UniProtKB/TrEMBL annotation:
ATP dependent phosphorylation of adenosine and other related nucleoside analogs to monophosphate derivatives. Keywords: ATP-binding, Kinase, Magnesium, Nucleotide-binding, Nucleus, Purine salvage, Transferase. It catalyses: adenosine + ATP = AMP + ADP + H(+). This is Adenosine kinase. Residues 42-344 form the Carbohydrate kinase PfkB domain. It comes from Limulus polyphemus (Atlantic horseshoe crab). PANTHER family: ADENOSINE KINASE. It holds the Pfam family PfkB. It is an enzyme of class 2 (transferase). InterPro entries: Adenokinase, Carboh/pur_kinase_PfkB_CS, PfkB_dom, Ribokinase-like. Its cofactor is Mg(2+). Belongs to the carbohydrate kinase PfkB family. Binds 3 Mg(2+) ions per subunit. It is found in: Nucleus.
């Protein structure tokens, strides 16, 4: 971890992220709705021709909520919510020149995220169908990227955006961004590596490990912190022929994969209500998760992103990995009580997360 006093002070632009800014369309449905659209509980996929009518049907048949979404944007919003100091985070992505894009911009700025969006006149702002089933315990995501896939490296290279990247000391990008912006993904990773900054990513979804294995492995040598849930971890292991389903063993193997610099890689694996597994070099540590009552869980959408946001909020301040994990668990627990990744009001933050 970066350790001088300047790095550990919270200042504007400390954490830099890029990703797909989406507007989530959330509805509580049933298993029949999932089957109709060939979806699985707790899955995350890109929409195809089978899903053309899903968004309209949700709006027509169900009571829906429109919530700012997208994995990296969720994480940045949660980190800002915990840090309680504006513009610590910077976020780049591409939106459409439309109403949904304006809503996303306003919502991000409300919580202090410094957004620098590229705006496309060719595509609408990306949307994500969030289908919640089993009384909130399952969520399936079906995304239409829209303008998100129009992001270009030229936007990152704009002088004002390049300056934001150079100012940052920590970087986070969800694996979803590999599907449309590999060049920018690599640009940030190489910059972090060159200047001994911290670069973190999330495997995001099993299909990233399977269908985007090649770009993922191009990025991995630059990754200092890798986040994943148990399904993503096992998908990664399958593609890498690790020949084990032990999350601890997979974490150790991930840490030992080639790295572009000599800094050790940290692997953080979440598994819902089961302990968080952290692998640092050859050491494996498990951290228990506070159990929520079933009736307190509204839905699981955004919980993983919130965990990363809570973790990084403390990591920026130089806190121990144990405190980072506890804050990640706290953030995820609070988001589980909300519909979608909405930031709850009137939450009392534990003292250890305030200092």
């Amino acid at each position: 971890m970066v350790g001088d006093d300047d790095e550990l002070s919270l200042r504007e632009g400390l954490l830099f992220g890029m990703g797909d800014p989406l507007l989530d369309i959330l509805a509580h449905t049933d298993e029949a709705f999932l089957k109709k659209y060939n979806l699985n509980p707790n899955d995350a996929i890109r929409a195809d021709e089978r899903h053309i009518s899903i968004y309209q049907e949700m709006v027509t048949k169900y009571q829906v909520q429109f919530i700012p979404g997208g994995a990296t944007q969720n994480t940045m919003r949660v980190a800002q919510w915990i840090l309680q100091k504006p513009y610590i985070t910077t976020f780049l992505g591409c939106i459409g020149n439309d109403k949904f894009g304006k809503i996303l911009t306003e919502k991000a700025k409300e919580v202090g995220v410094n957004v620098h969006f590229q705006i496309s006149d060719l595509e609408a702002t990306g949307t994500c169908a969030v289908i919640v089933t089993a009384k909130g315990s399952n969520r399936s995501l079906c995304t239409t990227l829209g303008a998100c896939k129009m992001f270009t490296n030229a936007h990152l290279e704009k002088p004002e955006n390049r300056a934001l990247m150079e100012k940052a000391k920590y970087f986070y990008i969800s694996g979803f961004f590999l599907t449309s912006a590999l060049d920018s993904f690599l640009e940030v990773g190489k910059h972090a590596n060159l200047y001994n900054k911290i670069f973190a990513i999330n495997l995001a979804a099993p299909f990233i490990c399977h269908s985007f294995k090649e770009p993922l492995m191009k990025v991995l040598p630059f990754v200092d912190i890798l986040f994943a849930n148990e399904m993503e971890t096992k998908a990664f292991a399958e593609e890498q022929n690790f020949e084990t389903e032990s999350l601890e063993e997979i974490g150790l193997k991930i840490c030992s994969l080639p790295k572009a610099n000599n800094n050790p890689r940290l692997t953080v694996i979440t598994q819902g209500p089961d302990p968080v597994i952290v692998v640092n070099k050859s050491k494996v540590t498990k951290y228990p998760v506070n159990q929520l009552k079933n009736e307190d869980i509204v839905d699981t959408n955004g919980a993983g992103d919130a965990f990363v946001g809570g973790f990084l909020a403390q990591y920026l301040k130089g806190k121990s990995i144990e405190v980072c994990v506890r804050c990640g668990i706290f953030a995820a627990s609070e988001i589980l009580k909300q519909p979608g990744c909405q930031l709850p009001e009137h939450v009392i933050f534990p003292e250890e997360f305030k200092s």
